[in-house]
């Protein structure tokens, strides 16, 4: 994203910004648009983001460290409890909070729950009203009124994360609440996520897109090996874990068709990310009830 060079005497700013909201309001889409590259996976399935993801936006006058959090929701298993705790803990660790809502959805119990949590912190909260491209401009004002009546926001910015509408205005508002500070990371760094985790998430994204019902949330992906071959191509072996034998058959598909499609789509994103040709070797295994097992959750990176 382009930004003006600071005038003489203006101090460089930096700080941490949490992106919070209900599941499926477009938090990951917003993060990717702000950074200018796909880092967080996107899906129309709720509760897509499971881990706290740090992404770095370096501008001429500031470095903003965005934290994409799991959607805050009522948990149904230990993984869900971990996700919600991760999101809520982040509220107390940042300099600014961006609360993302869906402009086309009514203020419901989930939004009200988050608002109550936001009232417990002293951090400035910016309301980002997302998906304004899906509704007439005249209908946006009532949405703003509905929310500002319930919370004292530091700013309100209507946006379209998908089309990058008003994102420069959102960045301007964020910077106004950051204190002078150093550049924490190199300017070419986009995320603190290990390469293996980003690859695993790209694979999981394709499964989210291609499956339905209980399958998406029963999936975990573990990268067992990344090896550079003589021709500089990468060999990547990944295991897709499901909770039941019936789910394994669904993910593989008739004659392995679905698994091949998952691999084909994931490999394209992985090659774009790494800048080299890759061979993706996918396996599917059953690990019963993994979402309720503490040791398994830790082994998959959910600390």
Report on this structure:
The protein is of the alpha/beta class and 303 residues long. It is built from 9 helices and 9 strands. It has a 6-stranded mixed sheet, with helices on both faces. Strand 4, helix 3 (109-118) and strand 5 (125-130) form a beta-alpha-beta unit. Helix 6 runs antiparallel to helix 8 (257-274). The chain starts with 12 loop residues before the first strand and ends with a helix. Mean pLDDT is 82; it is low at 1-9 and 41-50.
Key attributes of the depicted protein:
about 300 residues, alpha/beta, Rossmann fold, GMP Synthetase, Chain A, domain 3, 2 domains, six-stranded mixed beta sheet, three-stranded mixed beta sheet, 9 helices, about 35% helix, about 20% strand
CATH architecture of the largest domain: 3-Layer(aba) Sandwich
Euclidean distance between termini CA atoms: 33 Å
Secondary-structure element pattern, one letter each:
EHEEHEHEHEHHEEHHEH
The main pleated sheet reads as:
6 strands, mixed
The fold-level CATH name of the largest domain is: Rossmann fold
Structural class: alpha/beta
Task: Describe the secondary structure blueprint for this structure.
Elements: E1 13-20, H1 27-35, E2 53-58, E3 62-68, H2 78-90, E4 96-102, H3 109-118, E5 125-130, H4 140-148, E6 155-158, H5 167-176, H6 195-210, E7 220-228, E8 234-242, H7 245-252, H8 257-274, E9 278-286, H9 294-299
Parallel strand pairs: 1-3, 1-4, 4-5, 5-6, 8-9
Antiparallel strand pairs: 2-3, 7-8
Helix pairs in contact: 6-8
Task: Write a brief structural summary.
With 303 residues, this protein is α/β, with parallel strands linked by helices.
């Amino acid at each position: 994203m382009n930004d003006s060079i600071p005038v003489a005497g203006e101090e460089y700013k930096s700080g941490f910004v949490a992106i919070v909201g209900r599941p499926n309001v477009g938090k990951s889409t917003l993060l990717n648009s702000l950074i200018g590259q796909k880092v967080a996976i996107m899906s129309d399935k709720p509760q897509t983001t499971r881990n706290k993801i740090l992404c770095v936006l370096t501008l001429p006058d500031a470095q903003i460290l965005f934290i994409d959090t799991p959607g805050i929701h009522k948990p149904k298993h230990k993984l869900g409890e971990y996700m919600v705790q991760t999101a809520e803990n982040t509220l107390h660790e940042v300099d600014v909070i961006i609360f993302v809502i869906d402009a086309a959805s009514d203020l419901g119990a989930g939004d009200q729950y988050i608002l109550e949590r936001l009232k417990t912190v002293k951090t400035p909260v910016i309301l980002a009203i997302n998906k304004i491209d899906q509704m007439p401009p005249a209908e946006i004002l009532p949405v703003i009124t509905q929310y500002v009546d319930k919370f004292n926001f530091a700013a309100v910015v209507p946006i379209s994360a998908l089309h990058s509408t008003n994102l420069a205005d959102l960045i301007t508002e964020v910077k106004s609440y950051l204190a002078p500070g150093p550049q924490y990371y190199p300017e070419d760094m986009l995320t603190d996520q290990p390469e293996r985790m980003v690859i695993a998430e790209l694979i999981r994204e394709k499964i989210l897109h291609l499956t339905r019902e209980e399958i998406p949330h029963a999936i975990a992906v573990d990268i067992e090996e990344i090896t550079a071959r003589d021709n500089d191509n990468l060999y990547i072996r990944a295991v897709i874990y499901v909770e039941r034998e019936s789910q394994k058959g669904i993910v593989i598909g008739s004659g392995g068709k679905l698994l091949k499609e998952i691999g084909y789509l994931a490999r394209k994103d992985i090659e774009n990310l790494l800048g080299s040709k890759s061979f993706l070797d996918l396996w599917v295994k059953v690990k019963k009830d993994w979402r309720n097992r503490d040791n398994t959750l830790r082994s998959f990176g959910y600390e």
